[in-house]
Amino acid sequence: DEGHRLIVRRVPPIARLRMLLARFRPVAVAVVVFVPSLVAAQAFPRATDGIAMPRARLTIRGGADAPRAQGGFWDAATDQLTLSRTGLGAPSVAAEFGVALGSRVEVTLGAGVSHRTTGSSYRRFVDTQNAEIEQRTALQRVPVVAGMRVNLLAPGWRAGSMSPRRVVPYFAAGGGMLHWRLRQTGDFVDFRDLGVVAGTYTASGWAPTGFGAAGVDVAMGARTVLALDARYTVARGRLGAEFPGTGTLDLASVAVTAGVGWRF
């Protein structure tokens, strides 16, 4: 219809973050109402209680990050190529710094990186020499997030014996921004004439992200712990002209990591 025009406007990352936060507004209200009372109820024990409470924590973890891989790009890639939805499961490294607001509540700041490059070929096409038409796909994710962590047990120790609490389970949630980069390089089929062309296609950007996590700290000494963590991250990137017809890129993933934490 010549009387109507569709105008597509790219939403800036900050605006998308605001939209994401708006979706979680009921959760934010609950946090604002609930956390102060929780902090007050779990205030640091007095010195006369004989408990020495750590006030900060640094944790470094490593493990595996498995993308959910749903939606336009992944549907097309896994249908046309031998790329699997789990094929970009990546090793990951993360660091987190936490400051205690009370005996069980911490505010946290963290960052991480996961990267994986995997090979593939077309499922239904070969070249004129009956050789596979091959390419490589690389995906990198770098989240930078802040959040709130609630320890189900106070992670302190008794000053006299320096005996820490052995096991401290926790839940955590938060959000921030995630920088992502998708790159495909190799040989590709041009479906206009079924020719094979070499090329490199790249898209990257910042996307709003949120996460939920659960884990446990297991004491290995007076101030060191074995940190076990599982978290689900949600994010969605916007693909550009180099990936036509694929829309947005699903960046959600599940990460399982283990590492070492220091309390001080």
Q: Helices and strands in order, then pairings?
A:
Blueprint: H1 13-23, H2 25-41, E1 51-52, E2 56-67, H3 72-80, E3 90-100, E4 105-126, E5 132-151, E6 157-158, E7 163-164, E8 167-190, E9 195-219, E10 224-238, E11 248-250, E12 253-263
Antiparallel strand pairs: 1-6, 2-3, 2-12, 3-4, 4-5, 5-8, 6-7, 8-9, 9-10, 10-11, 10-12
Summarize the structure.
By secondary structure, the protein is mainly β. The protein is built from 3 helices and 12 strands.
Strand fraction equals: over 45%
> How large is the count of helical segments?
3
Biggest sheet overview: 8 strands, antiparallel, barrel
Separation of termini? Answer: 67 Å
What is the 3D shape?
elongated
Helix/strand-derived category reads: mainly beta
Provide the low-confidence segments as ranges. 1-9, 27-41, 43-50
- The value of Rg in angstroms is 23 Å
Q: List the secondary-structure elements in sequence, H or E.
A: HHEEHEEEEEEEEEE
Q: What is the average per-residue confidence, as pLDDT, rounded to a whole number? A: 83
- In spatial order, strands of the major sheet run 2-3-4-5-8-9-10-12
Beta strands, count: 12
Overall helicity? 10-25%
